[in-house]
Amino acid sequence: MISLTDFLVVSAGLFCIGLYMIVSKNNAIQVLIGIELMLNAAILNLVAFGKYDRLNNGGQLFALFAIVLAAATTAVALAIILNVYRQYKTIDPGEINKLRD
Amino acid sequence: MSLAQLLFYVMGFIALASAVFVAATKSLVRSIFMFFITLFALAGLYVLALADFVAITQIVIYVGGILVLILFAFMLSGKETLNVIAQQPNKFISVGKLPAFLLAGFFLIVLVNMIFKSNVDNLQWVKTAIDTKNVITPDAAMTENIGINLMTRYLLPFEAVSILLMVALVGAAHLSRKETKR
Questions:
Q1: Which domains are seen in chain A, by residue range?
Q2: B135 closest CB neighbour out of A30, A51, A69
Q3: CB–CB contact A56 B104 (8 Å)
Q4: Segments of chain A scoring below 50 in pLDDT
Q5: Which long-range CB contacts under 8 A does B142-148 form with residues at least 24 apart?
Q6: pLDDT tens, B22-72?
């Protein structure tokens, strides 16, 4: 029997690695991967607690919604990153400091 | 120690180790391919949490959709993009990365401390669920129940997500088209 605490510790580790990537990387695609890691940590928590809801499946269903929303987020974020590269010739989030032209 | 527990530790170790590799490696392509491993290990963890349908969805959408999208987006976007992105002189822990490392480390300490203090295995609603046999057992087939719940109890979030997906697809297509005029 795997206890809930084990799942929570693994997900806390993933969350902190994602946090480190978001803060330290100077490359928008790697920041995006960090966000995906944090989302996956949250989904792992939802799934682990969803084990104790057999009738309504609340945790698993909201994990499904979160996965689908992450897909939509990534599509839009990649389109934005490619556009930013076309404008600025860089995707370092620290160097993009103008709203337009 | 049962087999499931052993598998859990193996999967958890693979997920954490490959995530550290994703954060540490210099080449972006390598980190994206390592992210595949992280996502597969996470799908294994979902199976061990008795959520097989979520695990399959994770593989189909994350591995088949999102990662391939990321790979395509920067492998098809010209050679100069690849060169600019691929060169990263920084090491894993340099002085510039120290604040981020400290932030993540302290946050991890706080989180783990809180997890052990809150003692989640003895929560009130978890105990009630165990008492009333509201727990998913390893031999239960949950996919049918998920489908029924999706079409009855969670119909409104389902429709909202579908509208949001359509908006996001139209927006992404609009953003990524080539500008002809101006």
A1: 4-88 (1.10.287.3510)
A2: A51
A3: no
A4: none
A5: B142/A54, B142/A57, B142/A60, B142/B50, B142/B51, B142/B52, B142/B53, B143/B52, B143/B53, B145/A54, B145/A55, B145/A57, B146/A57, B146/A60, B146/A61, B146/A64, B146/B53
A6: 998 888 888 888 999 999 999 999 999 988 899 999 999 988 888 888 888
Please say if the pLDDT value at position B144 is more than 80: yes
Closest chain A C-alpha to B143 CA, distance in angstroms: 10
- Is some CB atom of chain A closer than 8 A to the CB atom of B104? yes
- CB contact B175 to A (< 8 Å): yes
ipTM: 0.90
pLDDT at B82 > cutoff 70: no
CB A35 within 8 A of CB A22: yes
Q: Does residue B106 or residue B1 have the better pLDDT? A: B106
Among A52, A55, A69, A95, the residue to mutate for chain B (most B Cβ within 10 A)? A52
Cβ-nearest to A64 among B54, B104, B134: B54
Which of these CATH numbers, 1.20.120.1200, 3.40.50.720, 1.10.510.10, 3.30.200.20, describes B1-87? Answer: 1.20.120.1200
